[in-house]
Design brief:
The chain is an all-alpha fold. It is built from 4 helices and no strands. It starts with a helix and ends in a 6-residue tail after the last helix.
């Protein structure tokens, strides 16, 4: 489950979130709507490219380390 604090900080987070009580319903919905799987996969790929290639981490750490990023 993804905490609301995380969802607010990272609104484009392409993760499905559910509770144990709602897991079966979520899985049944996914199986019923397989046409949306490609879009979910693409959203994950784009999110990963944006947030996990090192540039975002470098930007976040630059101020802390007292350096400037590339021009």
């Amino acid at each position: 489950d993804v905490d609301d604090v995380v969802r607010r900080a990272v609104p484009d987070l392409p993760l499905l979130s559910t509770t144990s009580a709602e897991l079966e319903r979520l899985l049944e919905g996914l199986l019923a709507e397989r046409s949306g799987w490609a879009a979910m996969g693409e959203a994950g790929r784009l999110f990963t490219r944006k947030h996990h290639d090192g540039r975002r981490s470098a930007e976040a750490l630059a101020g802390f380390l007292g350096v400037t990023g590339p021009a």
